[in-house]
Amino acid sequence: MFCNNIPRVLGRTRSAIRLRYLWQNGSLDFKIFREMGHAVRSLFLRGTLPAHVAAAIKASYRELSAKEGVDNLIIAVRSSATAEDLPDASFAGQQETFLNVTGVDALLNACRRCYASLFTDRALSYRQTKGFSHTDLALSIGIHRMVRSEGGGSGVMFSLDTESGFDKIVLINAAWGIGETMVRGTVNPDEYHVFKSLLSDSRLVPITEKKCGEKAIKMVHGSLHAAIRTVPTSKAERASFVLNDGEIMQLARWACTIEKHYGCPMDMEWAKDGITDELFIVQARPETVHSRSDAAIFKTYKVSDKGRVLLTGLSIGDSAISGRLCFILSPKDIDTFVDNSILVTESTDPDWVPLMKRAAGIITDHGGRTSYAAIVSRELGIPAVVGTMKGTYQLHSGQDVIISCAEGDRGFVYEGISKISTNTIDLQNLPQVRTNIMLNLANPEATYRWWRLPADGIGLARMEFVVTNAIQVHPMALVHYDELKDEDAKRQIDELTIGYDHKPDYFIDKLSHGLATLLRGLGEAKKVLGVMAENGLTRGEDGLQIYVMCEIPSNVILAAIFTKYFDGFSIGSNDLTQLSLGVDRDSSELADLFNEQDAAVKTLIAQVISTARQMGCKIGLCGQAPSDHPEFAQFLVDSGIDSISVSPDSFALVKKHVVASEQARNQ
């Protein structure tokens, strides 16, 4: 990091060799390999460091203090096991770190306690599970000055999306004060997403997501020699973002630089000094979940019968589970946990590892995507919904629920029991086709989840679903907020727009882009294009292409003229069927009459495809028919369609239908 000009806190490292020296030459004998747990830790804490090791630590501390211009520098003492965070195992949080340490005696004591932490119950349990020897390991201790983050902030960032493995973004979590609250999952942090590919363009600010977390508490330094303490955050802190856009961008650039240096996705910790406003990277290690997953296998989960929604939170993983709840509020109560139950608790830390291994799923009140509960749940492959805020007092032990993390960024806890179906796709065996197969996305939060599917792009993102799922408020309610009389609605808007002084900015920030829809004639087309141009969206400028939905018979009849104003068509087969046959698509009484394969509908589809091809205009179709009816897919291929857009869970099936149709056509 020093070579890449990334600020890291000035410090010293005591090598792992020194621990091995203790085995052989210190006050500890070989019985350390035969005794476990408390007895071994006691040996460390009662033992003394070899004289030359202690002298080297003292000299380094005095040198570090002198460079900072003080007699006794306030430092952090961080442990790092030599086996820590290999690509196939995460040892995060299992060895101790000590903060706010001052003076030589306190430093030497902290070093002994770091070494002893190799033999905590959680560390022994994890190594036993992973098959690591308890004796063939060592520990290095990093010592650096404390970053005064109580007036700034701290957090964790990943150079990929932690749930889907999507490697085109940087994920940053941030909380006020010392980062221990976030790692332990006792606070719901801010979350920022940055799109990597646009970071090199200084004109752009590619922050694609900003979520203001609750951040109800923070950890701060006590007075000199006093312990670190937890205090409530102020109302202003809870309602504001920890990082500004410039700081978010800086951290994202550093994440990309560190990832490039190490050659693999990275998990990093950062801190912001509240006195100098400087940002520092304080730790970097390999990401341990997606680096060991089989990229060729894509597995999806579907809940067949959902009860009412009991809770929502952040989804960890992408699976689902149905089971019975078991409340545990302290790891001391581990003996009362029923194996394969769903664990419900306020938050977890490394002491919970033995219990978490026995759980089928996890629900917590607090925590973000980088909390300990999230990290361990991912590695264990169990679904977790974290940061629910009220799980421990809204749910109850013995209750049957469904945890679903298969629906995007938001995790759901449903009432009842349900069958969970799975679908496994071997991506290596998917055939190549001429016709582009694209995806329909109803929920923007689920976009990352489908990135591994070899689709040819997004064929349809419905504006109404974008507003419903991602924005969650009508834009006019933001514009006329002061005129609202419904106090409950105002309260909900206040919660959604935390961090935004001007409420319409929330909508603009969340809004991505849409599609001109249901244009009945040329007059409406010109009006829509005019409004877009007035707001800086002019067809042809900077490569902007504008497509129009083809959902009305008039669109088919006027298709040749429409091509002068638009770059392509997307056939909405459901609405085109409804408006061609005069059948309400949502009516159960008329369901038998609604048929996308009706001769009239197919004639209109074939006609508009032919017109588009003659005019050199792209045309695709979005709808369920190609996945439900192989013969409809063949009809589209025979008609010369450019693309077919389907729901992600139908992707593999439609691709097989299309390849069969293309092969039949070529024979």
In CATH, the architecture of the largest domain is Alpha-Beta Barrel
What is the CATH topology assignment of the largest domain? TIM Barrel
Q: What is the 3D shape?
A: elongated
Number of helices: 23
Between the first and last Cα atoms, what is the distance in angstroms? Answer: 59 Å
Function: Catalyzes the phosphorylation of pyruvate to phosphoenolpyruvate.
Catalytic activity: pyruvate + ATP + H2O = phosphoenolpyruvate + AMP + phosphate + 2 H(+)
Pathway: Carbohydrate biosynthesis; gluconeogenesis
Domain Pyruvate phosphate dikinase AMP/ATP-binding: 30-296
Structure, explained:
The chain has 667 residues and is α/β, with parallel strands linked by helices. The chain folds into four domains: 11-145, Dna Ligase, domain 1, CATH 3.30.1490; 149-292, ATP-grasp fold, B domain (D-amino Acid Aminotransferase, Chain A, domain 1); 297-425, 3-Layer(bba) Sandwich (Glucose Oxidase, domain 1); 428-666, Phosphoenolpyruvate-binding domains (TIM Barrel). It is 32% helix and 23% strand. It has 23 helices and 27 strands. The chain has a seven-stranded mixed barrel. Helix 9 links the parallel strand 16 (342-345) and strand 17 (361-364). It is elongated and about 90 Å long. The model is unreliable at 23-34 and 512-516 (pLDDT under 50). GO terms for molecular function: ATP binding; metal ion binding; pyruvate, water dikinase activity.
